[in-house]
Specification:
This protein is mainly α and about 190 residues long. The chain folds into two domains: about 55 residues, Arc Repressor Mutant (Orthogonal Bundle), CATH 1.10.1220; about 120 residues, Replication modulator SeqA, C-terminal DNA-binding domain (Up-down Bundle), CATH 1.20.1380. The protein contains seven helices and five strands, in the order βααβααβαββαα. A three-stranded antiparallel β-sheet has the order 3-5-4. The protein has a two-stranded parallel ribbon with strand order 1-2. α3 runs antiparallel to α4, α3 runs parallel beside α7 and α6 packs antiparallel against α7. The N and C termini lie far apart (about 50 Å).
Length: about 190
């Protein structure tokens, strides 16, 4: 296996294009750059394939396969009594921080989320400010990620569904998550 260093933005782009849990960086790049080629893990012989490449940013360890920890998220959020938090923005940030806590290595996948004119997540506030005049970016507590917060509750629910799906929650887990986050809007 060979290692290369890449910039953070390229790492996040590759991570955001993951199609299934455990997909290697090599398979993602092969799919994007060489459509129609056979993934290395489906080849008949390791000698027939290119050597695997571990992608690292200068301050990160090699990419590890991400596992969905939806039940841990749901259990922790269930104990938070979110309904006593009156401001949806505070509730929204708490939910995202718990998801981040349990999906730290995979959370970069949310960087690919965006709307028609706005980027929803970034690793810095300025990136989100550049995508709109009233995005009101806030830091996801306990993380290096930022999220736009100037959305109505229905949009926050839709974004939360997308975050959960991107991180591997199944349909039932997504529904449970939304019921915990905003039962008054279901």
């Amino acid at each position: 296996m060979k290692s290369i260093e890449i910039d953070d933005d390229l790492y996040h782009f590759i991570a955001a294009n993951t199609q299934h849990i455990g997909e290697s960086a090599s398979d993602i790049l092969r799919r994007m750059v060489m459509p129609g080629s056979v993934p290395a893990n489906q080849s008949t012989s390791k000698a027939d394939t290119a050597q695997e490449v571990a992608i690292r940013t200068p301050d990160q360890s090699p990419e590890v396969s991400a596992e969905c920890h939806a039940q841990a998220v749901l259990e922790e959020l269930d104990g938070q009594q979110l309904l006593i938090i009156p401001k949806m923005v505070e509730r929204w940030l708490l939910v995202l921080s718990v998801i981040y806590k349990h999906h730290t290595s995979a959370f970069a996948k949310v960087l690919g989320m965006s709307g028609r004119n706005r980027t929803y997540f970034a690793t810095d506030k300025d990136t989100l400010l550049e995508t709109g005049s009233s995005t009101n970016p806030k830091n996801v507590p306990g993380s290096e990620y930022w999220v736009i917060t100037n959305n109505n509750t229905v949009k926050k629910i839709n974004m939360l569904k997308e975050v959960a799906q991107v991180l591997g929650f199944n349909e039932q887990e997504v529904t449970q998550l939304i019921n915990i986050f905003a039962p008054e809007h279901i």
